[in-house]
Design a protein that fits this description.
3 helices; 3 strands; about 30% helix
């Protein structure tokens, strides 16, 4: 997984954390490693002073992230090159 920090002009030049590339090997899924990883990334983002932490995920992964206490917010837009 990756945790990136973005400095924003709003919120007093506050930080936003971005979680990307969350993957748990299929051989070890179901052992709470993904949840442990997300909780650690949440802790680090909070410790860094982020005012929010966001990630994009597929619809089928929403229930997992809800178990990690994240909520659905907004709509993602993208263009790929």
């Amino acid at each position: 997984a990756t945790l990136l920090y973005e400095k924003k002009f709003i919120h007093g030049c506050g930080l936003v954390g971005h979680i990307e590339d969350v993957v748990v090997d299929s051989n070890v899924r179901g052992k709470s490693l993904g949840k442990t990883l997300i909780l650690e990334l949440r802790r680090r983002a909070k410790q860094a002073g982020c005012y929010k932490l966001i990630l994009d995920c597929s619809e089928h992964n929403v229930p997992f992230y809800e178990k990690c206490e994240l909520t659905t917010k907004g709509v993602q837009m993208a263009i790929y090159y």
